[in-house]
Amino acid sequence: MGLKWKSDKHINIIVVIFGVLGLMAEVCNGGITSNYVRNDDLGRDMPLDSDVFRVPPGYNAPQQVHITQGDHVGKGVIVSWITPDEPGSSTVVYWAENSEVKHSAQGIILTYKYFNYTSGFIHHCTIHNLEFDTKYYYEVGIGNTTRQFWFTTPPSVGPDVPYTFGVIGDLGQTHDSNRTLTHYELNPAKGQTVLFVGDLSYADDYPFHDNARWDTWGRFVERNAAYQPWITTVGNHEIDFAPHLNETKPFKPYTNRYHVPYKAAHSTSPLWYSIKRASAYIIVLSSYSAYGKYTPQYKWLEKELPKVNRTETPWLIVIMHCPLYSSYVHHYMEGETMRVMYEKWLVEHKVDVVFSGHVHAYERSERVSNIAYNIVNGLCNPISDQSAPVYITIGDGGNLEGLVTEMTEPQPSYSAYREASFGHGIFDIKNRTHAYFSWHRNQDGYAVEADSLWFHNRYWKRFQESSVAAL
């Protein structure tokens, strides 16, 4: 009898424990964890004789052509390319569609050395004072090796200007990388500019940080990056700090190859800056530069956020490499110190969305903040906060390190959707109040949306609410 009583008591205790655990799971569970998980094998590099790495024919033909915004408002374009054999011409010839008048701009030429590698001749040329919303053709090179491309400038800055951004991160140069870029190019949403959230070539994953892999990557992405601007931030794979190779200058390959209009944003470094484009104000931050109090990046961002005029550019977008919120095991909480420094500002200024990479998977957060904690009050859990941005991790470009598949369990309340698949995003601004985000898996049809969200602008939403309340 006594044994039975003890047994029943233990059963009751177990039932209570499981009941509490079940309640905890119900309380702690977040959004959706997709049941589709690709295998986590390492990515396979495309062979070096692949057509995507093809060297353009002709002696000293320009290669690795890419463009980015060249000023603060979108009337300038920086054209960059490399000639492998000799400097050649640093001139860009350009003309507007339906115009016979050709113009030219003069650029600069530089080279760099990294361990046992010497770069080709890197050209950067800024074209100024273009017309808004105009298609331009441009040529680089000389003689029989001239190459022609085109781009379209954005519409004039304004609150109701629609514009579509592609979002890609952690790309590399594998078969999956190629699928991601192809999927983006064929997406019927037709992205007009890429927001690239860091980790470009993964050259540092090869022996001796093989900088020839920067060249193959540059030729691989040229098919898109020569025709639409890529707005890039640096990731950990751009640091290239290698004292064992006597390479002690961080970001050397990246800063030589990728020029950005940081001076127009009154920044002291090309690693953090801002631009306006159509109805968006984009702030680029560096997760791997000093960002603590009184550092140059901190002081710049402190002055930059109050400058944003949301009646002119209502959509405030931040891109960085390391996510501030992520529920994947790999890289878990690596962005915590930056979150502690900057999250309060992001909420105060009603940033709409923060795009990041680093974690090789996809995740979208709820609007949450964790700014109330002061170490003694115990308020250390993220809470719902409609002034906070949505955090989107999109480090799923397809690099050789493969996908991250292990997730923290149960899914935390701040996580709305997560999935370990390769893909890209589209951020489609409709007007001052609404934008539409969609995430597209590589394995789906080009128009298929695996995850999506309507964005209600953080700044204009409060005016809508005030108008409704006054009725």
UniProtKB/TrEMBL annotation:
Keyword Flavoprotein assigned: no
EC number: 3.1.3.2
Residue ranges crossing the lipid bilayer per the database entry: 12-32
Cofactor: Fe cation; Zn(2+)
Record keywords: Glycoprotein, Hydrolase, Iron, Membrane, Metal-binding, Signal, Transmembrane, Transmembrane helix, Zinc
Ligase keyword on record: no
First-tier enzyme category under EC: hydrolase
SUPFAM superfamilies according to UniProt: Metallo-dependent phosphatases, Purple acid phosphatase, N-terminal domain
Cross-referenced CDD domains: MPP_PAPs
Gene Ontology MF terms in the entry: acid phosphatase activity; metal ion binding
InterPro entries in UniProt: Calcineurin-like_PHP, FN3_dom, Metallo-depent_PP-like, MPP_PAP, PAPs-like, PAPs_C, PAPs_N, Purple_acid_Pase-like_N
Domain (Fibronectin type-III): residue spans on this chain: 61-156
Domain of life: Eukaryota
Catalysed reaction equations from the record: a phosphate monoester + H2O = an alcohol + phosphate
Signal peptide (UniProt feature, chain positions): none
Pfam families reported for this sequence: Metallophos (PF00149), Metallophos_C (PF14008), Pur_ac_phosph_N (PF16656)
Family stated for the protein in its record: Belongs to the metallophosphoesterase superfamily. Purple acid phosphatase family.
Stated name of the protein: Purple acid phosphatase
Lineage, top ranks: Eukaryota, Viridiplantae, Streptophyta, Embryophyta, Tracheophyta
